[in-house]
């Protein structure tokens, strides 16, 4: 079942027959017609979600529609209450080794291979030999490359999608590098700190059909995990300067900015302050755009309440607004 | 007494005679030799401060050395306790109309005329005709130009010096304009919002020999004052679009970011969020550099406690550090 | 359909036929008998709410029962599960120009015309000629009068009903005027500040069948809007004293009391402190009484959890309590 | 030494001889002329403070000028550095039993006997027989009367002077009684709660020449102490209604309003909410007036920083201001 | 219906007939087959909860299944959707005087009589004669004994079950006594303070089939109630030392530790600090264990979100974990 | 100059000659007799502090009395203003290699060798072979032993003295081990976590004549440093279980309890919660006792304001108090 041939959720049409596999996000058995029960599930792929209804064999299919499962579904698309629904006639679990996970989670809009190239050219631009060697060592680790290319940057906030971490990291590093020049901070340290500031997230989050924390993610957290990893890599290098190590680890340890955001240190160098503030700015800007573009109902002037930003966002763009 | 011929505080030498005018910052009469009293004052100019001691005519000179006064002083520079002191023999108040205020307050390191040109070229670059017209109207107001070129951005935090507001505004606008492009925000709105975000400070702070709040500054604040001023200018324009007005005023009203920082609104558009965050970033970066370069004792690894940042700052720069 | 002839929600009786129009507050299509669906809506007028059930033509009537619509309904009132329900046989949307909005939102218990008279006599009592002239100019603006007579004071907190702003403003001004005398504050300033302290709410909130924020309300807020409006009116007056303007605008800018409540200033004069504290007191007292008298179940000793006050309220009144 | 014949601090004149007793507030031995030491003390009475200097017998007089002592002083009043000083020639400690404490602490501007009468007429006006009986029992306790007539309401905040508690209590009760009528709260409960809300302060603070906390004040606090006292008095009455007791004790337990101000309960009745808010309002208004009238330098537009209010206060009064 | 013969919820088996009484926790009438309605209730006893469905006589039985009622039920246990359900054929309210409340609320795992003995031996161990006499007087009050043996320690947090207060009190006192010895605090005071620190909860909470606050609990709170009670008992003793009273009452008044937790005092003695901190520690440890052992699904590595602790808890125990 | 022969500050007597070395804590040149200057310094050893005065050779001796220096002093002890002073006739800097640092900082009252033995027996008691092996490896590292035996636990809070870290660690581990048994937590994990929870402080603080942060201490912090160190030691062991590593590192990462105290994690296991709470309890109890016993003026009922605890502490002990 190659990606080219899939019928994506975003392309469903009322009145058509469908035969496709989707991930189950929620599932609920309800009281229905004639005292019998029916099953209402939310199924999705990386392009969206739809309600699926099962009227027969509820007892057996309940176990098929366990949240997290990928199910191959045969049924009909109907319009009901202004929304599409899939009425399911047949359904079977798809074996895990036949599932292409990337079909089922949202992805960065940018090609991860392109982002990876940009990341490598940022490393190329580092002048300090020690930092450059360290960055190459880390980002040429095959496990790091494999995980970093797909990892999300969060579970539910900004960049909470496949390759979101890479998109966020490249954006933060690009901006921070420019601002380092504007503000007279050390570019090499800033680039190294920015590239590594969320590295631990490749082990903190697990990307199945949905995004979940790992045990290590919950018990240790990405910040300590990346500090442990970077320290180990530094230990393998010859004569890595103690001062450079101290300044680099400080950027990682202080990148959450304030104690109350889980930062064991607060920024005490211009480079640490800059990486922290650009990280924050990039996350908030992404969060706001995600709120504005979410759910397609862009004819409403205001977004629904955004939990990330703690507010409603004004969606009307300059120039396009009414002139009342 | 032209600026070229002044003897600046930073150029004082122990053992020399001096005849120069300075502003009095603090003044204190103390018990001294033989039961008599002496006067110890701090006098300064825009390059620094020094202790002045008066052993004779204390009673009369006490009134001359009123804080805020500019006094013409004749005396000798001595070294005592590793610091220079001026032992004063004669002193007279300088009439206010003979004082060149700019000699006595710290100034931006950048020429304000250059900054003003940059500001005007930022206005030139605005594509939206309405915003461009508004900005020209505001910044060609002679009172605005006169005040904006000298106003500080704060009383004691970052950019608390002559032309500090102009330096801060040009820096914020330049950075915010670039980031607007990176993050897909509207450049014209961002530039207009950034240029005007602290405009009210020209009426909030008064730049005499020291920086003080005006009554309006304390009772109204710079944010409401600039909103009132911009609204009045908009009212003079023909058919300024209601939507543009609303989006621009929102940037000003939300630029402190959070309620607890005196912001009557929180940013609800990408443009308002960006101006707020760059304003914050520029202030913090400036505050950190000011902490690092303050007081010249740059052989200490750590700065004194910085009240602005609420922490000590690490002064040792990458590359220049010891490798322990 | 004049107001005198309406059948109000509060007067519905089980077993009667009904033919009346109501506003739709919520609407939901559910699975029902025989696999078909039915529609359950909440409909209301300014006296209360009731559940309406539609068993036929669900598909078509779903669009009639859009929340916010006013619908003319024919059906029967039934008692079910201790509550009244309306079983709808026919329903049609009422054209907006035939809807009398005041029938559908809760109203102040006091006649707005009476309140308006009290407000005007408060203006009459102002001794300071400049303040008196300003207040007359503002409150004789026909748009202000029209909006102020109906505006609510909030969307969901205290005084969240038609004419709630007027009721709140008259109460605050009356109390603040008396306390100004008790505490030696300037009565004229206090009366002017109290009358204008929430003026901006007439543009912040929109009173349709429900209460919603306007775009300006969300992006600018009532506090800045009233400051802009008052400043413009002051500008039209001859020689309005700068000191009076400063003190009056300060009351408006500081009336939320603390930064964290969106106040760009904190009260720095006795008059500003008094208006802020009486505003707060009046809102809290109103909120508590609304909690106590809400939902008619006054035989319970405790109210449901009040979101406004963040607590449960004890409803038993002194004298009427049991003596356990 | 009767009060009529005292020379008050506020009446001192430069160049006159003085023979009077004052309380010592601070005392400090400093290095002085010829290597010897001198003593600089602050001495005061209820009308103000002045610096006293002792040039001879410093060693012995150091013990006389212990802070808290009342000393009989012989010396000369001089003007120095724009302020009066007393140069002391002789000084002796005054025995505690000869000290009239009221000469040395600031006092309410209102006669305590008059305030006491007002308080009693407020009790007279209580209609509820049980509450009236309780109030009479409490306020006719001779110890309560003796202490209440002199107790301050605080150590350093508002009403921190002799009879300040009585002044504050009468003001709060008067205002709260009026507002109870305006807001439909129970007047008797409000009056009883307001009269008793700070009763515990008569045991919390000790009024010697200065105001200090008692051990019970620090370990138990005035709120629990008054609750214990009122409960004991209720226990002595016949058939005091349980509901009235509960509602009254609740007012006392909730009168600090929020947990963070040491309130074990938050107001859950209109009466408790009203007493809390009027208590707060009265304290803040008093604090602001005390800031404005303090230190006599009322030609300055702004007061010094007020620790109580956490801000500077604008001193210029409406009408009297400049019109710039 | 004695406890030995009951069929407990935890012992229900699918396919069996049942005839037993349970407490109703929630009740809901829903739309069901053929347009008719059915009733879905949650019924429980002290060992757990189960869903009960009523298909006939819904109208009449709705009143029987009022939450809080104890109902005698005849029906069949069925398995549905992986969970047991009771399909009810007959149901009747059980008269309140025939209900054994202890059958219906969760209980301490430890026998309250044993806990009571431990508590008494802790009193026995007090060396200070005054404190010992006071504790005996209090805990031999029959009302105190009766209530203390069954009272919960909270409504929904830690120890929210029958005899939870006793379990918590004995645990806190045991630990605090040991730590008093380790830290050199006064053991007798610590034991007395620990035994009495939550005494007021016997009047604050009411243990029916569920746990509810009393009116006094909400209006006065357990802390003031126990202080009032202890003070009254002290008053009955001969010559109870004032210093011991002050130190003991201080422990009670300060045992919530910080103002924001409703503590009118903060700990100012080692004994008060210790009782507060051990109270806190015991509650948190209990809360964590309750989270870990709740709901039996101990094969999940993480508990559901714990509202008490504000986090997810890791359930895997040392030694038993996988070694990935 | 062996420790036995020193004249300690606590043993100084007025009127005696002295010849001893002390550390300089503060130093200040002041105006003195005849217009000349004198030097006033605070000098100390581990038993206390005293003021030293230098009347001659001020210019030269100013450099000798640099804070941090250890100086050999010849002079006379005098009583002045109720306090001892040393009038210095001669003074010379002591070369750093001749200074016994332990003479000049306050020390634990318990012998560090005894504490070290207790610590080792706690390791002996660990049953889990992996944890035991890890602990032995760490605490038999000679650098760890050397530093741990002298390190303070803080710069100015609790246990801010030589061997304070060891005293605190042994106390926390002993208490936590007992409570692990009481609360059913895993003893081995608790003991290991408690022993290692502040290990990083041996590199965070530097114990010269005073206690200062190291650069690593400020930029990295003790928590990350100990995590890095423990992780490195675990890496050297054979087959250390991943689950044990995760649970142990979690205790270290969570031992500050809440984000706002610089904890990158919050406790999510009973063991982590217990170590955090006992750490907190031990620090607070120590801080309170240090406040009570500080400065010897134990005849005052209240301590001076304790910055650590944010309050005054009641010093009067049970039984020893007055009975007023």
What does this entry show, briefly?
With 324 residues, chain A is of the alpha+beta class. The first copy, chain A, has 11 helices and 7 strands. Chains in contact: A-B, A-C, A-E, A-F, B-C, B-D, B-F, C-D, C-E, D-E, D-F, E-F.
Radius of gyration of chain A: 23 Å
Assembly category: homohexamer
Number of E-type strands of chain A: 7
Distance between the termini of chain A: 52 Å
Main sheet of chain A: which strands, in order across?
Answer: 1-2-3-5-4
Helical content of chain A (DSSP H or I, runs of 4+): 40-55%
Question: Major sheet of chain A, described briefly?
Answer: 5 strands, mixed, barrel
* Tally of individual helices of chain A: 11
Q: Biggest chain pair contact, residues each?
A: A-B, 47 and 47 residues
Strand content of chain A: 15-25%
Mean pLDDT metric of chain A: 88
Spans of chain A with pLDDT under 50 lasting ≥5 residues? Answer: none
Helix-strand category of chain A:
alpha+beta
Q: What is the N-to-C order of secondary-structure elements of chain A (H for helix, E for strand)?
A: EEEHEEHHHHHHEEHHHH
Which geometry of chain A do the CA atoms define? elongated
Which structural traits does this protein have?
homohexamer, 324 residues, alpha+beta, five-stranded mixed beta barrel, two-stranded antiparallel sheet, 11 helices, 7 strands, 18% strand
Outline the structure in words:
Chain A is α+β, with helices and mostly antiparallel strands. The first copy, chain A, contains eleven helices and seven strands. Chain A has helices spanning about 60-65, 110-125, 130-140, 140-150, 165-185, 185-195, 200-205, 215-220, 220-235, 240-255, 270-295; strands at about 15-30, 35-45, 50-55, 70-80, 85-95, 205, 210-215. In chain A, the strands form two sheets. In chain A, strands 1-2-3-5-4 form a five-stranded mixed barrel. In chain A, a hairpin with a 5-residue loop joins strand 1 and strand 2 (about 35-45). In chain A, helix 2 runs parallel beside helix 5 (about 165-185), helix 5 crosses helix 11 (about 270-295) and helix 10 (about 240-255) runs parallel beside helix 11. The termini of chain A are far apart. The mean pLDDT of chain A is about 90.
